[in-house]
Specification:
The structure is a homodimer. Helices cover 56% and strands 9% of the residues of chain A. In chain A, strand 3 and strand 4 form a beta hairpin. The longest helix of chain A is centred in the N-terminal third of the chain and has 17 residues. Chain A is an alpha+beta fold. Chain A contains 10 helices and 4 strands; from the N terminus they run βααβαααααααββα. At the A-B interface, helix 4 and helix 10 of A face helix 4 and helix 10 of B.
Chain lengths: 201, 201
């Protein structure tokens, strides 16, 4: 069986949300699994001296918000730009890794729920309580997850994931690695498909 | 007849080259003409506080060069990353506007020749002599064009085009405006096609 694909993202990245809705099904069509890696773009941008699209100069910020919604419609996905944006996502990311250690499939459902809460339902998923609420709807015991979020183990885990991504050259999100070949951006989906279909071009 | 599409680009922009090979034929399928506007990204970046992709941090620079060639192959176009890159393009841009005032179709052929000289044949098209050589191959009288390049009129014209682009919100290249709707990047080609086909989505 072919190696899994690696998918690096931040829960606060609109284009990551768009790709998250497509990447598993696409990979499955070519017999591939996807490893999801939530990371923190804030740390990545600090390291590279970059900034979120909407906090750059006004013309780019304005275009970006237009393009988030238009790209979503083009891909057949719902999108509502969040009132609070961008947001901190360390609680959602730590919750993901904590869940992943217990139940991979549940962690994946949780990740989709976080993305949709933020980019469809305009919920502020930076708040620990909102993360716990969303997890509770999936049947996850609130107290256990809350302890997980605050544990040194999950803080270290997230830090290691961000460091590992930076070491691999990840400079933004979404960022996909297929057999060592990097693809940056949801708009590279057609190239990802071609690459999976042909093994390179 | 529908309004022309506006295509803003810098001759030193790889993604502009890629789009330049596709935009006229695509627009023609929907009964549209394209107005080409060479501009100077150096001035745009200075205004917005941005920088060329390959002069940003190393991970992004390295990825960008990989993506230029891969995107070209994906689009079925030749690409050889120039040894000297990025380059100044005011001579090529002024020559374009000078020619356009005399023969629109010839100006278009000249623009394609400049892009291909730089991105296929690794020629340094920043040099006035190279611009004049490329024009000469298209039957353009060298002395006349040389005088045009140095004229205050063409210097003013290019400055006005850059100022007009900035006023419209152009912050990078390629940048396409269709009935007021902006599209940034060669990777928005599928969305441009959909927009032309449906009048919006």
């Amino acid at each position: 069986m072919a190696e899994p694909i690696d998918f690096y993202f931040d829960f606060s990245s609109p284009y990551s949300y768009l790709l998250s809705e497509k990447i598993d099904d696409l990979a499955a069509r070519f017999g591939r699994k996807v490893r999801w890696h939530p990371i923190l773009l804030g740390i990545v941008f600090k390291t590279t001296g970059s900034a979120p699209l909407t906090l750059q100069f006004p013309a780019k910020a304005e275009y970006s918000v237009l393009d988030f919604g238009r790209s979503a419609r083009f891909m057949g996905l719902p999108y509502r730009h969040p009132d609070k944006f961008p947001i901190a996502t360390q609680n959602a990311a730590r919750a993901y890794y904590w869940l992943h250690g217990r139940d991979c499939a549940l962690a994946r459902r949780f990740a989709h729920a976080i993305f949709r809460a933020l980019f469809v339902n305009n919920q502020d998923v930076s708040a620990p309580d909102t993360v716990l609420d969303i997890a509770a709807e999936l049947g996850i015991e609130r107290g256990e997850l809350e302890a997980g979020l605050q544990s040194a183990e999950m803080k270290d885990r997230l830090k290691q994931e961000v460091d590992a991504a930076l070491a691999l050259g990840v400079f933004g999100a979404p960022y996909v690695l297929i057999d060592g070949q990097p693809f940056f951006g949801a708009d590279r989906l057609p190239q990802i498909e071609q690459w999976l279909a042909t093994g390179g071009f």
